[in-house]
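Aim 2 progress. For Amino acid/amide ABC transporter membrane protein 1, HAAT family, the working sequence is reproduced below.
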Amino acid sequence: MTDFVLIMVTGVGLGALYFLAASGLSIIYGLMGVLNFAHGAFMMAGSYAGWLTMGALPGSWSVATRLLVAVVVALAVGAVIGLLVEVVLIRPLYRHHIQQVLVTVGLALASVAAAQGIWGADPRTVEKPEWMGGTTLVLGARLPNDRFLFILVAVAVFLGLLALLHYTRLGLIIRAGVENRTMVEALGINVHRTFTVVFALGGAAAALAGLLYSQYAGTVSPAQGGSLLIYAFIVVVIGGMGSLVGTAVAAVAVGLVQQLANFYAASGVGDLSVVLLLALVLLLRPTSLKGAPA
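Predicted structure tokens for this construct:
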């Protein structure tokens, strides 16, 4: 029973990270039809922004305080990068999907090479607050505290994005612009500016995921964003391209399947199980690739 509780909480915590990584990808595709392969670069930027910020702040500050500041900086960096990518690279290619893929793949490869050139390919150690490195006793199991933080942040982001899309004027414009851009523009609303905001939100969410994943792994590295991007794509496809609710459910399912398979089968089987889950979903529900409402 103790092991089961530990596995379940660990799986949900990992699923929370996968949701944070996939949420920006999901809203960008679902609302704008852009399959952003540079999403991993946004996550890498967030992790390095957090690492650099924590290292630049005074050592007399507590690790938790420096981490909070790093989160703010990472969100800002991710939003700015997302904004620039949309304005410079994506906006001229909205009706050219193949070119979008080529440009974003090229940006992803270039960003990894740039990070390796600046900071090297070796992982760099990240400081973690003492509380996050500790455990809490629940039902006889010692549960890592950082998993609770990941779950809390993921729930907050999920509810915030749903509220933004369904209960604000910006969300109304975004959804209307997706359905009929010409009509919205005829009403005098700048749809391009609204879509830029969506890309900035996606970049901020990705940067937050990258920073928290570096806390989970204890290191930052140029390849980290690409590794997390693979799971983000799997989660988005399983949950339905563009469905925020489906993405959240799929993220938890992927995290649980991965952890259960690693524990009850063998280490490394979890990754295979996730791929098999993806194949099963596509066989039974191929419409996942066609998208769904956010």
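Residues 2-290 form a domain with the ABC transporter involved in vitamin B12 uptake, BtuC fold (CATH 1.10.3470). This observation will guide construct design in the next reporting period.
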